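pasting for the record
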Amino acid sequence: MPGPLVSQAKQQLKVIIDAYLSEKDVDRVLVACDYADMAHDGITRKSGEPYILHPIAVSCILAHMRLDPETLMAALLHDVIEDTDFSKEDITKKFGKTVAELVDGVTKLSHSSDKEYNKAASFRKILQATLQDPRVIIIKLSDRYHNMTTLEALRPDKRARIAQETFDIFVPMARLVGMNEMADNLEHLCYQNLDLDMFNDVQNALVQTKPQRCKYQAIWEKHLSDLLENSNIPGRIKKKNNNIELLRHFVKNEINLQELTHSHAFEIVLQTIADCDRLVELLKDNFQVLNYQDHIRRPLPGGNQSLMLRLKGEKTTLSLTIQTELMRKAARFGVVLGENAPQTCRSAIQASMQNLHTLVGGDCAKTTFNDLLDYLHQEKIWVYTPQGHLHELPQGATAVDFAYSASLFLGNHAVGCKIDGEIKPLSTPLSSGQVIEVITDVLASPNPDWLSFINTQKARRSIQNILRDQDIDEQRLVGQQALNRALKLFNTSIHDLTDQNWTELLQWRHIPSKNQLFEQIAVGDLLPQLVANHLFAQDHHQDQASSRLILGTDGVDVKYAHCCNAVLGDPIQGHLSRRGLIVHRARCKNLLHEQQLHPENIMPLHWKDEGESEINFNAYLCIDLLLSDEQISQLIYICRKSKIGIESVRQYESKTYLSIVVHSRQQIAQIIRELRMQFGFPRISRMSAPLAVEEVSQAC
């Protein structure tokens, strides 16, 4: 006989599913519930509760979203294969192939003693199963959400580890498939378990200012209600619980506590897109609009569509989300809606799924896992074909990346492109919302020079595969031509190279012949710009330590640009100049300008190890607070304790400017966290470079 807790949980599940499932489907779900109860009999969770309470809770979460009976049954059985003696075949015989495949899709792998490998292999398996049936990720996210609500029974270190994993993988995965309500709930729980002191400080600030916040919210609501009524626009205004959004901005160091408590948010749900557009024009006429973004025509990840505005009031700011009812539902549930979601939402999620499909193609589970992390945390852009098909690309992607995203044919035969109807070079970086048309020639083939400016693995692998399949004589000719183009920067050509030049190059690469050098260039194993740099960079004072930090730059003059001051761990790109290879932060404005003018001189760069180094880097911080002499003494003490050097502390216009010496980006993040905690959570921003007090800095 089940105990009272289990009986109560089963009854709760029955009440929820009775509201929308047929009697026959309700019976099927309850049979699966009894089967799971039997399979987990005698097993308890860390809290001491019967284990079956967990899968029932997961099924209830899904039932609240009105998922189909097969998904609910799989949720009830999701730990049976992993934790009991029952097999996939047992589930297939009892509940059918669909349920068994869903259960198998969320079941972890444990074939190796290497825990990291098992984790990586399990995530790849979940990705592969999700591509076959998106319900797999829906179950997995609901499973993780319930686990996150019951972490109190675990050790603090394990709670933090699970929360970090959730933040790194499951939160962005939820946004990727449009389940933003789930993502918000998971993110909130992550902050609570990762930095409880900061979380409590924010919550206390929100509680203490609640009466005043409610007062200002009522004023805003009255203004908005009057505007809708006077303009005869039917709709409803809903106060938005923006605590998670405020917490996110605060943790990311984008606002301080004072800004946090003076920010409000509302949703306005209207009947049509035309009404949404009309309301925006009225708001622009009646309020001071600080920011406006059209995400109906340019949807966010997961196909989240809305018009977003930020309005300035006398003492507060208001964030407004304007959308139709269907858009609101799609923004909350995304992939859960299936065919009932708007076409734009489905198209965006499908684009993301196609990128995931590219990630799971490799043989190495750990590589797949690392690629997944990179993909989930990249800033992304959304661009369109002339037919309106949406493509998701990493920020900084070029027209070549888009061509390969659209199809192998377009990529392999691209000779040019039109961006919003205007002819542009294939190296042009793209921006969200642009319409891209690729111009092709069936006789054309990939150019090895493209490898210096592309930003996606799909494009890189495709180009290298084509180049490697070329005839050996053709490879050598292609490599020779690519090197010749790189040498133009130094006003020379391949025919001007002396015997001594060739001897130096072959010794540098440890190869016996020129032809082998050309072959390496032709297949993308060696960038021709690096060969030219090795021979002709004017400043031969090579920084050996710096070159050792960056992959593929041994024997190359490496310097760091002073316009952006890259630090170990920053995303970086290289700019080939006559002075050598100049390292910039990836979004440096000077670098982007150079890419527009001379894309052939830009190349991707990667750190060998993004931990710590023995090399010193300069970094510059701005604290939005005028520190007292005593606080400056505390600041110096904290920096020295963290083994961070201080070059200067200056104050100007209610701000404190700090010049420090660090070993890595990780060290910068750590000192920012410590200083914020020490001085009451002011905003602390990293600047590009040291500036005169009259100037205002912009980061790369």
